[in-house]
Design goal:
The protein is α+β, with helices and mostly antiparallel strands and 95 residues long. The chain has two helices and five strands.
Length: 95
């Protein structure tokens, strides 16, 4: 079975714009997140990208990031606009 995620090898934080550029079209899990007061991501270390939110959770890949050394976690949904809008419609129809 093909994996729907990949582990990333970044060691240093990237600015949010760089993460968006590199991983456009994917969901990205970020550790050591530096957030603005309005909760917008400024920078962080992307560690997983996937085709859906928390792709790979069944493999337990996120457990390794549940340590204080990884700081604040966040996620970015960088899916193409049509994909996100279809999720919103689906969510609203299930409400």
């Amino acid at each position: 079975m093909e994996k729907s995620y990949r582990l990333l090898n970044h060691k240093e934080p990237l600015k949010a714009d760089e993460i968006r550029r590199l991983y456009s079209g994917y969901w990205v899990y970020i550790v050591k997140a530096h957030m603005a007061p309005n909760k917008q991501l400024i920078s962080g270390i992307p560690v997983v990208c996937g085709d859906c939110a928390y792709a790979g959770a069944e493999d337990g890949i996120y457990k390794q990031y549940d340590k204080d050394e990884f700081g604040e976690h966040t996620e970015l949904y960088l899916f193409h606009p049509g994909f996100v809008s279809s999720l919103v419609v689906l969510r609203e129809s299930n409400a």
